[in-house]
Specification:
Blueprint (H helix, E strand, L loop, with lengths): L1 E4 L11 E9 L2 E10 L3 E6 L12 H7 L3 E6 L16 H15 L4 E6 L2 H11 L4 E7 L6 H4 L4 H12 L3 H8 L3 H12 L8 H11 L4 H9 L9 H9 L5 E6 L4 H11 L4 E6 L5 H4 L1 H13 L4
Parallel strand pairs: 4-5, 4-6, 6-7, 7-8, 8-9
Antiparallel strand pairs: 1-2, 2-3, 3-5
Length: 304
Amino acid sequence: MSTNLLSTSAAIGFGGVVQEYLCNWENQQLRVVYETLGKGSPLLLLPSFSSVSTRSEVGELAKLLAANFQVVAIDWPGFGQSSRPSLNYRPEIYQQFLEDFVKAVFNNPITVVAAGHAASYVLQLAVKQPTTFLRIVLLAPTWRGPLPTMGASQQIAGMVRELVRSPILGQALYKLNTTQSFLSFMYRRHVFTDAAKITPSFIEKKWHITQQPGARFASAAFVTGNLDAVHKQSDFLGLVQSLTVPLMVVIGESSPPKSREEMNALAALPKVRSVVIPGSLGLHEEYPTVVLQAVQDFLLSPEN
C-alpha cells in the first residue's frame, strides 16, 4: 500500500492536491484517487455510491469545509477516476479499503462526512474501531440498493447483475440505462429537486462519468444491492446504537418515501442529532451551502 502525487492537470476535481492510493485485493492492485484541500483538522469526505459516483459531487462542499478543515475526498474503488477492474464488487472490498485508507493517510482520529450508501461502511468501521472518528455526519444516508428498494429479490437482482457484467449484452444494457435522457430522468425523480439545475451540460458531465472503461461493474453491484453492507433495517440501526462517537444526520425533505422512512427511523434514535433541509438524495451536491450551515456548529463544537 502506498500513496503517490498525481498531476493536477489530469484532475477533474475541485482544485486540491490529487493523489493516488495503491492497495491490493485478491492479488489485484487497485488504484484509488483522492484529493486534499484546506488546512486544519482532518476531515474525510465520502461521496455516495451511484452510477455517477465521483468526488466531484462533493467538490463544492469540500471547498466550503476547507475553510476550517483539511478535507480529503475520495473516488471509491470502481468509481470516478479510481481503477475499475471487473471484480466481483462486494462489501468486503470497501470495508477493507476504508479501514486501510484511513490508517494509511491519517495519524489521528478524524471527522467524517459521508453521503448516501457510504453510511453503513462508516458506521461499521466506527463500531469496529471506536477511536477512528471524532464525529460522524451522514448526508441522506441509505443502506439498501435501488433494486432491493424496489422489491426485487436477491435472485432477480443477481441475474440482473450477471447480465450487466456479461461482455456484449451487458454493455448494451448498461448503455441503455446510462443514456443522457435516462440520467436526466433519474436526477429529476429522486436526486435533485430543482429542475433548473439539471442542465444539458450538467447531464453530459454525468454521462461521461458512466462511459469510462469498466464503469459498469461497480455500478451494477450497487444498483443490484451487492454493495449493501447490511441487509436489514434493524442491523443498520443497531450500528448506530453501538456508536460511541457523536452522530448527526442530514435529511432531504423531498427524499423518496422509502428512503425518508429509513432516515426518520435513524433520526428517532436517542443521541442522534438530525436536521431536515431542502433536497433529496443528492442534497450534498445540490445544496452544499445549506448543508454546511446545517452541520457547521456540530462539526466545530468542542463539546463533540
